[in-house]
Amino acid sequence: MRRSKEDAEQTRQAILDAAEEIFCSQGVAAATLEKISHRAGVTRGALYWHFKDKADLLQALHDRSRPVQDAMIRAAAQDGHEDPLGLLEQAATDMLVAFEQDARQQRMFMIMNFTSPDEGGAAWLRQVNAELFLTLSSLIGQAEQKGELTPDFSPNEVTVIMIATLNGFISDWLRSGRLFPLADLGARLVKRQMSLFRREKLTSSDDVPA
């Protein structure tokens, strides 16, 4: 029984590896389950036993490439955190470090951002992006409730700015052939951007009436 489970997991990972390669090189729309099963060296039946369609494959690829910080952010958004903006700054910095070193994360980013999806893939991508937006907005909303967020931006606006900035930054790094240090420059960018979102603390002199 244990050997059968190990064999099944090896087959599943082989299918995912093949799907990742084909999605990245040919795009989701051009990829077919037949191409993926052939590349993985398995039958169509074996592929369907593990995955029902391309959207299911995309979700599985997304799940196995998630950085550990993703779970931390989701948990904090759901359960609360004493320093939401500090958590986001540290998580974003750590995620850039991991991304720079992890080819699997890089390929998944390219699949999600550089390739043309089919109808099912587009629907899946909208769902993933919506979930990310809601998670970040909820966490940033905690900072607003604590009085830590600048009144210049709403939680939704901060979320838009953060996602657009990081996606654009990573995209330029990949498109340029990795010509600049992603993690080092990214850490400085994230720190500067987060300072823009923090409410300025009053000093003792600010409390004294003129």
Keywords, separated by commas or semicolons:
single chain; 210 residues; mainly alpha; 10 helices; 75% helix; elongated
Would you summarize the structure shown here?
This protein has 210 residues and is mostly helical. The chain has helices at 2-26, 33-40, 44-50, 54-64, 68-79, 84-101, 103-114, 119-145, 155-175, 182-197.
Compile the SSE list and pairings.
Elements lengths: L1 H25 L6 H8 L3 H7 L3 H11 L3 H12 L4 H18 L1 H12 L4 H27 L9 H21 L6 H16 L13
Helix pairs in contact: 1-2, 1-7, 4-8, 5-6, 5-8, 6-10, 8-9, 9-10
Coarse morphology: elongated
Strand content: under 5%
Low-confidence stretches: none
Number of strands: 0
Mean pLDDT: 93
Question: What kind of oligomer do you see?
Answer: single chain
- N-to-C SSE string, H for helix and E for strand: HHHHHHHHHH
N- to C-terminal distance: 79 Å
Number of helical regions:
10
* Main beta sheet strand tally, sense and closure: none
Radius of gyration: 21 Å
Structural class: mainly alpha
Helix content: over 70%
